[in-house]
Model the fold of this input.
Amino acid sequence: MFNNLVWMFVLLCSSVADEYSIRDANIFPSSPEIERGSSLELSCVLRKSDTPQRNANHIIWKLNDTLISPEEYKIVNETVSNITIHNFTYSTAYVECLMKYLDKELPLVHTVVKSGFRPDMPENISCIYFYDVNLTCTWSAGRETSFTTNYTLYRKLMSSPYTVRSCQNTTESCSFFYPYNDYSNDFCFQVEAKNVLGASLTECVSIPLQKIEKFASPEILSVKKIPGIKQLLMVTWKMPEKIIPLKHIICQVQYRNLYSNFTEFVNVSLNSKKDKIVSCNLTGLWDSTDYSVAIRCMNNESAFWSGWSGEKKESTEEKAPSQKVDLWRVIESSRSSRNRSVHLMWKPLKSFQPSGRILGYKIQYFPEKKTACKRTVNSTDEKITLFLNEEAYIICVTAYNSAGKSPEAILRIPSTDEKSSQMIETMVTSTLNEEVVVQWKTSEPETSTYVVEWYEELETDPFVRSWQYVSNSTEWKNNKKNFKPFLCYNISVYPLYGNNVAAPSYAQIYAQEKKPSEGPVADTDIPGKNEVTIKWNEISKAKRNGFITNYTIFYKPEDGKELNETVNSDILQYRLKSLQANTQYTVWIMASNKAGGTIGEPKTFKTLKLDKDDVFFIAIPVGISVLCLIGLWITCVLKKHAFKKVCWPDIPNPEESLAVEWPLASSMNNSFLKRVSSQTKSVDFEDINVLEYCFPEEGQEESLLINYENHVSECTDINTKGITNRDEKILHNEEDEAANCFSPSMPYVIADQFTRSQMHSALIPVKEVQPIEMVANDLFGSQQNPIKNEENDIEEVLKLEDFSEKALFNPYLKNSVKAREFLVSESLPEHSMDECKSQSSVLPPFQPKVSGQSYITLDMFRLAKAQ
Done:
């Protein structure tokens, strides 16, 4: 079933294709070639048309795939359609005939159309006649035709219109070869050019063969000199065999001086019928000079010379050289004056005729003051090195050949201790147009001869130096081509007087400059806070390419504006100032000459936060502080006992005091203190406060103050009596009276160090807390006038007017703390114990205070031992 469907589909497609296909069509002309600018006519012919839809009405035309307007179509019949294209200008075009049916374009046939021009008439006919060889004519064809053009050359007799010979070619020349190149002066020549579009024919031009004859090149047999005859060469040559007979011939002899590259010509006339071997003498030549000789010949009526014969060389007769050599020297400095290297160089003077082939040179030298010590050296080179001592030397150089020797060239080498005079005052170099110019000014006008020496600055071989003698002038010029571009040359000018050479004047020059091949590499010192020193090295001489005129330092902070500084070429370091602190910079350097500048590799650096001055000013106070601390520490170490005594004074233990007994009954006596001390040792310090706040209540303050006043007056009398001197002697007979001055409820511990004034000062009411330093002053204060102090204290107490203010009593120390505690013993009467307890209930129990707050500990109440 599937196969049947496939066959049905194939048959249907084939029937449709047959319906819409055209079996064949033709186009006429098939490959048209027309004259450019003319009209093109083409016809498309259908071979078969079985249906009315296949006819010429459905034909369309295209030119280079572009539809041609239907207005140009012409339907001849049902099978022929014509088209006309006016003013066809394409050199080559593609024209196609198609059938348009059901909106489809079916190609039928196509052709390629070419256009061109008719050939122009050939012009400028010329011919060359080689006797019994060939006759060749050439012409110019004119413009390009775009078609193949065939040329025909006709040779006719002037007396007859018939053609004698003809030749064809597609190029613009044609030749008649032997034996078809008959000799006759009655011939004329005519050229026809022809292509598919037409032909053009020139007129017949008469050309006599003797006027177009060209010989083959003659052959030189010999060029030789005649012994004993100087300045002469004899040339012999052979004429070619095939020459038109009975005609006069002219030969031209060319001889060229190889030394000066100068060329001269000599014409020689001869009869070709008789002269087959010809000779000629060349006179007036230079002695001992090489010459090159060549010959060509021609018919005296012809317009063409033969080709030049091959060259032959020969030298004239020698004679002794007539001119001395051009001599110069280079004296190389040496550590040892006894072994100097003197490099001699010379060359023949090219401004004069040479005397012959130089076979060698003879060098003679001797000390100036020892002419008998002459030495001779022969050399075939134009240079030699002599090793001389410190004396002055005379050097002579002569050139010689087989005929003799030249005059001597003499040069004096000064001794090592001679100092040549400086004759040249100024020297200037410049480049003008295509020349290097050196000008100088001398202080000795009579000096007329100078030597200009020049060489590359980096050249170390002394023998490659160039030099030139200058006479009667203070200016020297040389072509730039003799100098290498972008290289530095050293130029020296030496004045000559006789055989002596004066001190030279030096200069440097670049014949041509360009910007340096590389830039300087920047380097930096250790940066500061606001400045840094930039350093760089000179560019190598081989890469400067000119004279460095200046350096430009470019520097740029990070994310900042680029800045620059320009310095002279002799400066190789520069300090950049006014930089930003703690900032990263990039710096690079450009070296410049007259032709431009080149930038080197960049360098980065970062400025410091602080410079040396800042560190210095910071270090001074720090150092002083450290020294002070060290000094204080040393002082503390050396005076630690004194400082301890001032800052932590020893409080006398009342228990061990022999100066005063406790003001109690005999039953209490010293057992009170012993019991207190023993109890404090057995009882925990945190549970029992040995020192408690014993301040009276508000109701009791007034009565307490009244009693205090009464006691003060009595105690004052007693105390003044008891103190007699500073020996701190204790009067025991006044103990009872002193005890009566104090209430049992207010016991005091009196040390032998205390004066009576200090005891009374402890009774003064304290209004505010005093620093511990003040307490120390009270404890260890001066005792120069205890009576007076005592009286002052009493007066201060008596002057108190307002006793309603709370007064805190300190029975032991003056101005120590606001809260003072009294020593309480268990053996005290009950009323005093109750009183203390009642006071303790008002104020909180004693707690030791933190650092910075004054307080009294138990150790401070140890009784002082007897001194």
Observations:
- Residues 612-638 form the longest helix (27 residues).
